What does this fold into?
Amino acid sequence: MIPLSWYLILSAALFSIGLYGVLARKNAIAILMGVELMLNAVNINLVAFWRYLDLKTVAGQAFALMVFAVAAAEVAVGLALIISVYRRRKTVAADELDLMKW
Amino acid sequence: MNIPAFESSMYLALVPEITLLVTALLVLLFDALWDEEKRRNLGWLTFGGVVLAMVLAFFIGQPGATPELVWGGMLRHDWLAFTFALIFLFGAAITALLGMDVSELGRRGEFYILLLVSTIGMMLMAASADVVMLFLAIETTSIPLYILAGFFRKDDKSTEAGFKYLLFGAMASSVMLYGFSLVYGFTGTTNLLAAAQGMAAQPLALSLGVLALLLVGFGFKISAFPLHFWAPDVYEGAPTPVAGFLSTASKAAGFAVLMRVFMTLFPVDSHYWTTLIAWISMFSMTVGNLLAINQKNIKRLLAFSSIAHAGYALVGFVAIDQLGINSVVFYLGAYLLTNLAAFGVAGIFWQVAGTDEIAAYAGLSRRKPWLALAMLAAFLSLAGMPPFAGFVAKVVVFLAAMQAGWTFLVIVGVLNSIIGLYYYLKVLNVVYHYRNEETENLPLPISAPQGIALVVLAIGILVVGFLFGPFFNLTSVAAAALF
It folds into this structure.
């Protein structure tokens, strides 16, 4: 059986890639994709921990399902907000949206 | 742990949430039935529902003397959650009143529904005793707020505010969620209290790592340094009543979660994280206040001031004893009254003058003396001047830190209050001393709901400032629930 640590390394790597994407990318869609990678890393963590450590309850699985549902809601709202910005400004690049700064 | 699966008395713990949900459904129904003219009454409907929720919570939803876990251990029905619920409900009621006559906002059912749903989320946040519930509650609060921040679809600044709030918020909550998944993994349980025993057995580096991940999410919610940078942009762009709600109720919800999770989950490592929180507090106060000095836009100024106020509230939290938690809850209550009033005045002024520039406030004391007086009360209370609520709140926060031995932190706090006083008085100077012959004689109408909201807030600021006893007792009972 594959050891638990492999899953955790995979999830940590995925999380880091996602976080890098969020911090380094300028395009809002790419930033949202980075967030999705981070959320998937969380899901891998949850399901792996559940499978290896906590088979008697379903807390880990239930948590992962909640994360799916919330991620879907967040992306739906996120894309709607991105579209509303695009309609006004014709761009979704985070660094070009600088109407407000000190 | 022995948690009863279901008893019908558990509904009592959810009375305010259920009332708000029913109100939201009614708003949805009447939004479809009423025409444009009548839809303003949705604001009164929302206000009525929220006030009813407060009354019901007060008379039948009060928690018992001992905290109890309800709904399979998902929620904790205790005085801390109850006190915070009252704070959030009050904020939502005032926000509904202030938003009613804002064009493109007050006649839209969505505004009220999102406001109510986000308030439900905040109450659940303050009561959560399980990481799954906590995550769900935080997102229930945040997602409606993202939409509310970007509510003016035809306004460049508002759409940009919603966009930035969403991107930063989604990032912060994902990092926090990764922390939650590690809590579950290290302890094998999602219940906060049971997880605390598991976390105590972990090596220090691991628990501090998890703590740092969680702090990203909570720090974002309370807009503390170094996760404060979204606040000025979002407050400036968001519709003013929404900005007021964000800076008060949403911040208070973040503090509720921060206090409950850190005190429950990491009590053994408190020596390390209180030092961390003390540094965050110092930087929040200093950065917020220094950047506020040169602001030309009133909402941006209030945003930087709200970052500083997150720092002041953290001063009390650093004490992590009963007086410390008590002072934070009290501070957040007083800050809610004060800042809602400040944003309320800014919203009323914007609606007539169409600008948030501080320079445009010249001559306000002649144009509308009562509005200027409300602004005076709000700004002096923000600055922490007696006899207003902000003064008492600052005193208890500093007192708590002092008793716990954080003298240096208190000195930084007091110095910061002096910087704060400078820029608050600078605004009041424009309002009271500057003249503007052109606009001075123009009318500045205040509608009935806005008037009611401002009067309630102004009286609240004074009452909490003079008769803080009963409020202080409530918050001390609330703080006791954590120990």
Summary: The interface with chain B takes residues 8, 15, 18-19, 22, 28, 31-32, 34-35, 38-39, 41-42, 45-46, 48-49, 53-54, 59-60, 62-63, 66-67, 70, 73-74, 77-78, 80-82, 84-85, 87-89, 94, 97, 99-102 of chain A (CB under 8 Å). The helical segments of chain A are 4-24, 28-53, 59-89. The radius of gyration of chain A is 17 Å. The domain at 4-96 of chain A is CATH 1.10.287.3510 (Helix Hairpins).
